């Protein structure tokens, strides 16, 4: 047995499922074992299925063996397989791997199909063995007839007439010489009517290619037998499916004399196989085609003559909230209604609607006539889903959906590429506001891929030392002295060159990499700041480091900052940590929990981009904050200096009010994005403490800052 590496199954669940399975079989009326023995056998089979389900790599073959083993154990009542598959589909995942049914759904379907296939093969082999015994009896009787004609004739007739399977004998011209009653009953004819029929008249129009050629080769003596699954028309024109075995009988000289056909009615088995195939290819909840059938049809499009293809990938908005608030029953009923509406919305167009799993559906537009056709399908689907849904006594539910649309030429792409693009486009539709469709854009797709590539490269880039720090001066507006520098991280990509921070900082925050990156920035900035402190102790230069929200909320951040200060020897007062306004003064909930602990280490705390949020300003007097950094847009508004410009005047008044507020609370104020002397003069007149921006210098290397400090000694 392969090693179970995905999840461990529940042994208690195995026992419970085996007990349920045994009871389901016993309810059929006859089981060839005692209840205890039946449960023990089925428990062994259940454990094998469970181990197969969670094993890596996953192979469904053991389930095929379970199906055959059931037949070998004489569980051959036809209804037993139906009950087994029904019980498996409803309870197996729930009991054996509780809590992870979505993760193993496709594997469970594969196990179910393999078990059914093994069961069907076991029945088939069992029947073949019976047929072989009958055949031997027939020909034994025939041989005996040559020794004792009367006795053998009686014995032969007994077997021939009493056989449960159909037997027919025909000459080489195809004229039926004799048939037994079972064969006549299968086809709905009398024995006399059957003897007037030529075997060629029984060939079904859509028989497997080559069947007629096989028969001709047999009567010509080129082959001695053939075995096929064949359809017949009954007398009432209904379809009979049979397992047909035809043998050539030769005379003493080896010349063909006649053919003997042995026919078993397998219509029920065939219909069962068709039901099993339907179950394997359709979603049990909604009845829609499942992902397996969808991908079969999608692959057929690429293998066929279609020139274009369209895919609409749909996901319900807020479905989890429905499940969580109203329960899974309501959620399931909602999915059933949505599935029915989606199918109806595109049925006239002949498109395939499939359920991919959860609340995801997909519509296949085969041989699309262009983008407009795919968009029309998506809009029809959105309209169908948007209608309120009434379930039992609950208030009507209003749901929306987001759809990603991909429509393109078949040539030059693949099913995998199409589905990747559809998944990406669905994400765009969600990000753009939900309740809408989005059409795949190659340019946007390429940008998305580039972002993903950058995100994947971030950890390795840090390990390879591709990040560096630059420092932007912060200058006293009155003295003109260098008071502080802000540490800014830069990525020197070996292929892309310098990657701007706005392209990778957001990615680092999304992926959680910002914690590692922020830790590295803090360490490097403090190492450099300690060097400046040792060389220029009188400068009192403060190094300001940005602290991301996730980094500030990380466990142990206070100890981490204290440890960096201790290792580098940098006085705590010469480190300033910048946090965004939304992190320090949220509109709801509590501010960063570690804020007071950080302040207790002696470092300065600054609010970055102050004025861009809608915070409760009462927080300012309660939190250990030392400085405000005014957001750039306010400072940019001071650029014109035109008192007639009402916007400029308003910005000046806002800056004035913010500076007064900060000073009243004992805080210093830094103006960001100062680019002109005119702005600096206005800020100086408003009593702003320090300025940062291109007027005082852009981000530069540590060596340049060192040179600047030396020049002002």
UniProtKB/TrEMBL annotation:
Q: In what residue span(s) does the GGDEF domain sit? A: 307-442
- The PAC domain covers 226-278
List the SUPFAM superfamilies hit by this protein, alphabetically.
EAL domain-like (SSF141868), Nucleotide cyclase (SSF55073), PYP-like sensor domain (PAS domain) (SSF55785)
Can you give the residue ranges of the EAL domain? 451-713
Domain PAS span(s) in chain numbering: 152-222
What InterPro entries does its record include?
Biofilm_reg_signaling, EAL_dom, EAL_sf, GGDEF_dom, Nucleotide_cyclase, PAC, PAS, PAS-assoc_C
Q: Which SMART domains match?
A: EAL, GGDEF, PAC, PAS
Q: Which NCBIfam families match?
A: GGDEF (TIGR00254), sensory_box (TIGR00229)
Protein's UniProt name:
EAL domain-containing protein
Q: Which organism is it from?
A: Phytohabitans maris
């Amino acid at each position: 047995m392969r090693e179970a590496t995905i999840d461990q199954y529940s042994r208690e669940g195995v026992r419970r499922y085996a007990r349920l399975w045994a009871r389901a079989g016993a309810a059929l009326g006859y089981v060839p074992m005692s209840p205890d023995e039946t449960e023990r056998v089925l428990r062994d089979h259940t454990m094998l299925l469970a181990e197969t389900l969670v094993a890596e790599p996953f192979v469904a073959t053991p389930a095929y063996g379970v199906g055959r083993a059931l037949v070998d154990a004489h569980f051959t009542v036809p209804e037993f397989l139906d009950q087994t598959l029904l019980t498996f589909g409803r309870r197996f995942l729930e009991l054996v791997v509780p809590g992870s049914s979505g993760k193993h759904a496709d594997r469970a379907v594969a196990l179910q199909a393999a078990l059914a296939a093994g069961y069907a093969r076991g029945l088939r082999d069992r029947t073949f063995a019976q047929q072989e015994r009958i055949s031997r009896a027939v020909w034994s009787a025939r041989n005996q007839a040559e020794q004792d004609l009367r006795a053998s004739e009686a014995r032969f007739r007994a077997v021939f007439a009493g056989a449960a399977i159909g037997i027919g004998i025909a000459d080489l011209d195809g004229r039926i010489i004799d048939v037994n009653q079972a064969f006549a009953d299968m086809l709905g004819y009398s024995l006399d009517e059957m003897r007037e029929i030529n075997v060629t008249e029984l060939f079904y129009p859509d028989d497997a290619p080559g069947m007629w050629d096989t028969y001709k080769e047999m009567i010509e003596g080129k082959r001695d037998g053939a075995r096929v699954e064949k359809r017949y028309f009954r007398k009432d024109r209904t379809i009979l499916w049979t397992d047909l075995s035809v043998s050539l009988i030769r005379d003493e000289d080896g010349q063909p004399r006649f053919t003997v056909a042995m026919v078993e009615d397998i219509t029920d088995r065939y219909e069962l196989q068709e039901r099993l195939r339907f179950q394997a290819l359709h979603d049990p909840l909604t009845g829609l085609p499942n992902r397996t059938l969808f991908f079969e049809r999608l692959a057929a499009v690429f293998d066929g003559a279609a020139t274009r293809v369209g895919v609409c990938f749909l996901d319900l908005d807020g479905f989890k909230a429905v499940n969580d608030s109203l329960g899974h029953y309501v959620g399931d009923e909602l999915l059933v209604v949505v599935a029915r509406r989606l199918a109806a919305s595109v049925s006239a167009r002949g498109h395939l609607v499939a359920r991919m799993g959860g609340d995801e559906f997909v519509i296949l537009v085969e041989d699309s006539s262009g983008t407009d056709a795919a968009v029309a399908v998506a809009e029809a689907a959105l309209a169908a889903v948007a209608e309120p849904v009434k379930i039992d006594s609950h208030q009507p539910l209003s749901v929306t959906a987001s759809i990603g649309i991909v429509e393109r030429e078949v040539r030059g792409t693949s099913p995998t590429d199409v589905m990747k693009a559809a998944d990406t486009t669905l994400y765009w539709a969600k990000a753009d506001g939900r309740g809408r469709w989005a059409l795949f854009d190659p340019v946007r797709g390429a940008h998305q891929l580039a972002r993903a590539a950058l995100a994947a490269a971030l950890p390795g880039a840090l390990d390879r030392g591709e990040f560096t720090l630059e420092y932007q001066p912060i200058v006293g507006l009155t003295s003109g002295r260098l008071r502080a520098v802000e540490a800014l991280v830069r990525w020197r990509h070996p292929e892309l060159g310098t990657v701007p921070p706005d392209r990778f900082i957001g990615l680092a925050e999304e992926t959680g990499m910002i914690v590692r990156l922020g830790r590295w920035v803090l360490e490097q900035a403090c190492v450099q700041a300690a060097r400046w402190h040792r060389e220029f102790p009188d400068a009192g230069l403060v190094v300001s480091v940005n602290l991301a929200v996730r980094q500030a909320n990380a466990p142990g951040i206070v100890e981490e900052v204290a440890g960096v200060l201790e290792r580098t020897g940098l006085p705590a007062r010469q480190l300033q940590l910048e946090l965004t306004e939304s992190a320090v003064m949220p509109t709801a909930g509590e501010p960063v929990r570690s804020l007071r602990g950080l302040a207790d280490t002696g470092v300065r705390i600054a609010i970055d981009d102050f004025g861009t949020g809608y915070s409760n300003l009462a927080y300012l007097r309660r939190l250990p904050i030392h400085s405000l950094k005014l957001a750039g847009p306010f400072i940019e508004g001071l650029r014109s200096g035109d008192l007639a410009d009402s916007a400029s005047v308003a910005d000046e008044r806002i800056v004035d009010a913010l500076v007064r507020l900060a000073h009243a609370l004992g805080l210093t104020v830094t103006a960001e994005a100062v680019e002109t002397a005119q702005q600096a003069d206005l800020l100086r007149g408003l009593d702003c403490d320090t300025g940062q921006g291109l007027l005082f210098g852009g981000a530069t290397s540590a060596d340049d800052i060192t040179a600047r400090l030396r020049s002002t000694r």
